[in-house]
Design goal:
38% of the residues lie in helices and 19% in strands. It is α+β, with helices and mostly antiparallel strands and 825 residues long. It has four domains: 189 residues; 184 residues, 2-Layer Sandwich (Cytochrome Bc1 Complex, Chain A, domain 1), CATH 3.30.830.10; 189 residues, Cytochrome Bc1 Complex, Chain A, domain 1, CATH 3.30.830; 165 residues, 2-Layer Sandwich (Cytochrome Bc1 Complex, Chain A, domain 1), CATH 3.30.830.
């Protein structure tokens, strides 16, 4: 196997990480070449099939001062019991022979599944000596040469000095291309018979691919040289492994020598049918802002992504993920119990999802030609060509193995088998929790729309807030939106906070990218939503900015007046009517208090509404992707708590500090409890009848008493109120309020007509249509499970409602006035 390690910036959490990705590789070959190699076009990249000779993976390009040749040899399956001793021994023989033949600038490197030879071509590009020397090094039977056998003994001794920490890591070591033997395994020199048997099985057709990086003319000459050499023997058949879909057993080992005390190292390995799928999966898993990194960081005892490696094997591809988890406490009563198991379950889940959703490379030999060094380009082309020729090919399948190394103090004391049993039980519980949906999900499909929408948040809204913390939830999600907006933008999502009495959360709009599949769009949108709401702690800068914005808004004249009204409507719970709160606590709340409120929102319950643009499968994929971001601890809340009935409203007249304009708010609290829904429907119709340019308020106030007026129903469904706002010149405000009170009294006595009811119903229908014309409005209604169209009671029911509710002694009035003008001297 071969790979290219690419360093990435230090993760935001301060955890060092280097993930490893292999350059993409390709599938497919061109038809068999004739006896004389045809010329290649410039920058061509393909695999030439030669009769009775190894194939040649070609990177034909100009500009390199010297070309390069490489050979990839597959030893997998030759002698599985001998493991990596086979490629190490055969590589040692080949290296000794090439040195004896006088071939310079050559490198021979063993891997777990084979070995690779690469060399620079001589000046002038005549690669004939190199081609012939390589052929002789591979096909000449091994004799009892002291030089060759001594080279084998020396290389095997070096292999013995790199033992595996534990046999549980063999799968990972094979994937990350680190030939090693279990501690104590036999690494003595192999017998001459074994070496010759291995050579005959591995150095033949079906197990060898050449790679050439050179100008088209040099490539043609070298291909012709290979055609002029004698035919090659056949190698041992390559066993085409069949990948399963079930997870391998969890293996726990002692890692005290490598892992700090009370910590653990988790390694997850997944196998894929196509090598380039492993590369694509590794890139996604190694993303510093990707789901794996963010989900691990959000744990109570955060996990740190150590590295991600992708590689090619005889069975296809593989990807290995290693994470470190600190402060592991296995005691069941400890606060951190299960943190390690949750990290294991998350890592396994993310690896599987990345493998299943990764797209394979489509270009021949992938990106091998992008390597600047011609030796590396030839090396990669030969190895990937060999892997693609011997791999199982599609369809995709995945199997994984999980090994967990425990540092000293991270395992339960006593029984040596206890760590295995303890962790198996904890991981089973964590897997079960992750498989149980934690979010209340609602979805709809609008085919052909240009965007994908997600609304995620708490359905408890502001109902848990009292006087002391009114608006704290609004501050928490506003700060979170401020912080998450840049990362969401990087994911192609437009993000905003959503704050109402019955819900607080985040709203996302995501447009498809060119050529993006519907499922890919859904998962990208879901990851943007999940990462925004459910990962990371609040940063001081984002919190300070959100606090400043809300403080400025709370000083608005209308906000100050409505704050006073809200405190009188539902004493002790002003944010039930004004979700952003009164503004009094904005300066007093500590950053810790805001973080605690955000943590409570994240614990749940949570509801998500998904508005897809393709089919139901797309929306369900988004829901599943979002759900994996949600914490799934046992006993996490699934519904909002039942609250004690709030205090009764406080009727009366209230004044607010001097304002620039004169205005009054007049509110009528509506019945609560079982009668609230019917009362709300009736109040919506009455408010619509009062509102509008030709409504009842217009008839009463348009003579010049007031400059503007409106009527609305506010507050939660169980504690609603009918509110009228009147703005007027300071000298006519009292008269305008008197006229409004007189109008309400007339309505109470049954003056509302059927024409008023019809006009109100029409206005409500138009408002409903206007709200439903936007996808934003539709996703909010979907979240609320609200059709949007209120029931219009008959006229006699409206009269009964007015008679019961619109009593003058129940009125709550809040007035604001400009300061009196100073008298002239």
């Amino acid at each position: 196997m071969t790979e290219v390690r690419v360093a990435v910036p230090r993760l935001p959490s301060g955890v060092a990480g280097a993930f490893t990705v292999a350059l993409a590789w390709a599938a497919g070959c061109v038809p068999s070449a004739p006896a004389v190699a045809p010329p290649l076009p410039r920058a061509a990249s393909n695999v030439r099939e030669l009769p009775a000779r190894p194939p040649v993976a070609v990177i034909a390009r100009e500009g390199d001062p010297r070309g390069a040749v490489a050979v990839a040899i597959l030893t997998a399956g030759v002698d599985e019991a001998a493991g990596p001793r086979v490629p190490v021994s055969l590589a040692a023989v080949a290296e000794a022979r090439l040195a004896a033949a006088g071939i310079h600038d050559v490198t021979v490197a063993p891997t777990w599944d084979g070995f690779r030879i690469r060399a620079l071509l001589p000046e002038g590009g005549d690669g004939t000596p190199v081609i012939r020397a390589v052929r002789a090094a591979l096909l000449t039977p091994i004799a009892s040469s002291g030089v060759e056998l001594e080279a084998v003994r020396r290389k095997l001794a070096a292999l013995a000095r790199r033992p595996l920490t534990d046999a549980a890591l063999a799968d990972a070591a094979r994937c990350v291309d680190e030939p090693a033997l279990p501690d104590g395994a036999d690494a003595t020199g192999s017998s001459l018979d074994s070496l010759e048997r291995w050579r005959g099985a591995a150095h033949g057709l079906g197990r060898v691919v050449f790679g050439i990086t050179a100008s088209p003319a040099v490539v043609d000459r070298m291909t012709s040289v290979m055609l002029g050499e004698p035919v090659w023997p056949a190698g041992a058949p390559v066993t085409r492994h069949t990948l399963g879909s079930t997870a391998g057993p969890l293996r726990v080992y002692d890692a005290a020598a490598d892992v700090p005390a009370a910590s653990a190292r988790v390694t997850v390995v997944a196998h894929t049918a196509t090598p380039s799928v492993a590369t694509a999966a590794a890139r996604a898993l190694g993303d510093a802002r990707g789901p794996l990194t963010e989900r691990l960081r959000a744990l109570d005892m955060p996990g740190a992504l150590r590295d991600v490696t992708a590689g090619a094997q005889a069975s296809g591809g593989c990807v290995a993920v290693t994470i470190d988890v600190a402060h592991v406490d296995p005691h069941p009563s400890a606060e951190a119990a299960g943190a390690l198991a949750t990290a294991v379950a998350i890592a396994r889940q993310e690896v599987r999802l990345s493998v299943l959703t990764a797209a394979p490379a489509t270009a021949p030999l992938g990106n091998a030609g992008e390597a600047e060094d011609p030796r590396l380009a030839a090396d990669l082309a030969a190895w990937w060509g060999l892997m693609e020729a011997t791999g199982v090919g599609p369809p995709e399948a995945s199997t994984d193995s999980v090994s967990v190394g425990l540092g000293s103090g991270a395992e339960p004391p006593g029984d040596p088998a206890a760590p295995q049993r303890w962790l198996e039980h904890e991981v089973d519980q964590a897997n079960l929790a992750l498989e149980t949906r934690a979010v209340d999900a609602r979805s709809a499909v609008e085919r052909g729309q240009g965007a994908f929408w997600i609304l995620i948040g708490s359905p408890c809204g502001t109902l848990m807030e009292g006087d002391a913390d009114a608006g704290l939830s609004a501050l928490a999600v506003s700060a979170l939106a401020e912080q998450a907006r840049p990362a969401a933008r990087d994911r192609g999502a437009e993000l905003s906070e959503w704050v109402s009495t019955d819900g607080v959360g985040l709203l996302l709009r995501v447009r498809p990218r060119t050529g993006e599949a519907p499922l890919a769009l859904a998962r990208r949108a879901a990851d943007a939503a999940g990462a925004a709401l459910l990962s990371g702690s609040l940063e001081a800068a984002a919190l300070a900015k959100a606090r400043a914005i809300l403080m400025t808004a709370s000083q608005d004249e209308a906000a100050r007046s409505f704050s006073a009204l809200a405190e009188a409507l539902i004493p002790g719970h002003p944010s039930w009517s004004l979700p952003v709160g009164t503004g009094r606590g904005l300066e007093a709340w500590s950053d810790g208090a805001v973080a605690s409120r955000l943590a409570a929102l994240r614990r749940g319950p949570l509801r998500v509404a998904v508005l897809g643009n393709d089919d139901e499968g797309q929306t369900q994929a988004a829901i599943q992707s979002i759900d994996r971001w949600v914490r799934h601890p046992p006993g996490s809340p699934r519904s909002c708590p039942v609250l004690a009935p709030p205090a009764s409203p406080r009727p009366g007249t209230y004044a607010v500090p001097a304002a620039a304009t004169a205005a009054a708010w007049i509110a009528l609290p509506l019945p609560r409890g079982p009668d609230a829904v019917d009362a709300r429907d009736a109040a919506l119709v009455v408010a619509a009848a009062l509102d509008g340019p030709d409504g009842l308020l217009a008839r009463a106030l348009s003579s010049g008493l007031a400059s503007s007026w409106s009527a609305r129903v506010v507050g939660p469904r169980d504690v609603p109120a009918l509110v009228v706002r009147v703005e007027a010149p300071a000298h006519t405000l009292d008269a305008a309020v008197a006229q409004t009170r007189a109008l309400l009294d007339r309505v109470r006595h049954g003056t509302m007509t059927d024409a008023d009811r019809t006009r109100a119903a029409t206005q409500l229908s138009e408002r409903n249509l206007a709200a439903s014309l936007t996808q934003r409005g539709r996703v909010v209604r979907l979240w609320r499970d609200d059709s949007g169209a209120p029931r219009v009671p008959p006229l006699d029911a409206l009269h009964r409602f007015a008679a019961d509710v619109m009593r003058d002694e129940a009125l709550i009035m809040v007035a604001s006035r400009p300061p009196p003008a100073k008298a002239a001297p």
